[in-house]
Amino acid sequence: VQLQASGGGLVQAGGSLRLSCVASGRAFGSYPMGWFRQAPGKEREFVGAINWSGDYTSYVDSVEGRFTISRDNAKNTAYLQMNSLKPEDTAVYYCAADSRGSWSIWTTYNYWGQGTLVTVSS
Question: Can you give the three-state secondary structure of 21-53, one letter per residue?
């Protein structure tokens, strides 16, 4: 499985961005997808994840109610809609696929995208 993340950029606080993660290879609709982020000097942080069918999601408390993860299995694509962005959301965002354990632990994922930078200005 190969993952290609895109959609990052510079946005003002309070603004919105939508990240996309396109997968190729093994059947996209058969595994959960996760989103993580890593700010400069900080550890990789779980943002949220979605199950294989798209009817269950989980988020870290700091983004709950502001971020929404979805997926379109017909397009082999997962999305991270980010609203009400804050400067502390600034990070490189990564998509990950096929967790074999706890969704919130990055080492449980088998496949990773290259990351896309999100910068939120105050």
Answer: EEEECCCHHHCCEEEEEECCCCCCEEEEEECCC
